[in-house]
Design a protein that fits this description.
With 387 residues, this protein is an alpha+beta fold. Strand 17 and strand 18 form a beta hairpin. Strands 3-10-13-12-11-14 form a 6-stranded antiparallel β-barrel. Strands 7-6-4-9 form a 4-stranded antiparallel sheet. Strands 2-15-19 form a 3-stranded antiparallel sheet, with no helix packed on it.
């Protein structure tokens, strides 16, 4: 037995089905256009957000940065006012007040020396002895020549006296008497020459011993026992070097702008790196009274007592000179100065604007030029930015 499938019959006519088909088609076309429009809007928004907007922002930032660069930012500080008295610091080298080499005045060989480097000697103290046998022989010969000349003079003198007596009795002619008198004078001159020759050689013989010319310290000894010694100071070898260190002198070059403010009698102080925090008193002794045309400085000397001997010649020192000025000044750093054809100028802040103002340059102090009042200036201080 077979089952029958149910049968479905369409109650709609063909004309109704055709109308239903034509009604649903426009609805599908409207839905597709809507989604296309939405996609285009999304694409346009993404293009604006990720493409156009960053470019507009970058262009705005560029305009802002360009505008900021057109305004120069400067550091503004206040000038520092100095007092009427100033301290001028100058470099210098300590030198012994008396410093001299010692050469031999006699040729020979070094027999013995008595002073080595570092020894403190007194004036007239024996330093060395020279053995000069040739000089000794020359002295003996000169003494023998002197004795011969003296004997000849005495004989000529007695002869002249006798001929003068004979002339009174007309036993000899006046011509013969004059000859004897002139011979006596010549013998006397020879005797004087022989005497001075002996004195010269005796003085040379005295130079076989070398003595200290003044109180000081032996700073060099260049010879030893047996060394050949040549007389003189040209090509001869320096035997000793002695320096007087009880008082030292320091030569400094004072700038021309300070030349009228320094003079003898001024007090000075010396500082050395090996004596931190300690100052040594000195006195401005003298100056050359002439400005060096090359360096535009005044060569000056400062003397300092050194009885203890703690200061050593040749050391580097800084000399502090106390100067008095009639007017106070404003100190500005070097990097604030603008050197223009019309002169030295400084940028001064006026109404939030930098104005170039001429400044009459004064005297530098420790690398910081000064400007006399009332000229405005800038000097080291806590900077603040102005634009």
């Amino acid at each position: 037995m077979t089952s029958k499938e149910p049968e479905y019959k369409n109650a709609l006519s063909d004309s109704d089905l055709a109308r239903a088909h034509f009604r649903s088609a426009p609805k599908r076309r409207i839905s597709r256009r809507w989604w296309l429009l939405v996609a285009l809007l999304i694409l346009g928004a993404a293009t604006f957000i990720f493409g156009i907007q960053p470019r507009l922002a970058a262009r705005a930032d560029l305009k802002k940065e360009t505008a900021n660069h057109n305004v120069t930012a400067v550091s503004v500080t206040k000038p520092k006012t100095t007092s009427a008295s100033q301290e001028l610091v100058l470099p210098g080298n300590l030198q012994a007040f008396s410093d001299t080499p010692i050469y031999a005045r006699t040729t020979g060989y070094l027999k013995r020396w008595y002073a080595d480097i570092g020894k403190k000697v007194r004036a007239g103290e024996l330093l060395a002895e020279i053995d000069a046998p040739e000089l000794d022989d020359q002295l003996q010969q000169a003494r023998a020549d002197h004795a011969t000349a003296e004997a000849n003079y005495q004989f000529a003198q007695s002869t002249a006296v006798r001929w003068e007596a004979l002339l009174k009795t007309d036993s000899v002619s006046k011509q013969e008497a004059d000859e004897k008198r002139n011979d006596m004078a010549a013998r006397k001159a020879v005797l004087e020459a022989a005497r001075y020759s002996v004195l010269r050689l005796e003085k040379l013989q005295a130079f076989k011993k070398l003595y200290a010319p003044f109180d000081g310290v032996i700073t060099a000894r260049n010879v030893d026992v047996g060394t050949l010694i040549d007389a003189g100071s040209g090509s001869a070898k320096e035997m000793f070097h002695i320096a007087s260190t009880k008082r030292l002198r320091v030569f400094v070059n004072v700038p021309q702008s300070y030349a009228r403010e320094v003079g003898p009698g001024m007090t000075a102080e010396l500082t050395l790196a090996e004596f931190p925090g300690q100052r040594f008193k000195g006195v401005f002794a003298r100056s050359s009274q002439s400005i060096d045309a090359v360096t535009r400085t005044l060569l000056s000397e400062v003397d300092v007592e050194n009885a203890s001997g703690e200061l050593l010649p040749g050391s580097y020192a800084q000399v502090h000179l106390k100067l008095s000025s009639e007017h106070a000044a404003l100190i500005v750093p070097v990097n604030t100065l603008l050197f223009r054809p019309e002169g030295v100028m400084v940028a001064v802040l006026q109404n939030d604007r930098a104005v170039l103002t001429p400044v009459p340059a004064a005297k530098p102090e420790a690398g910081k030029p000064e400007a006399p009042k009332p000229a405005p200036a800038v000097s080291p201080a806590a900077p603040e930015k102005k634009s």
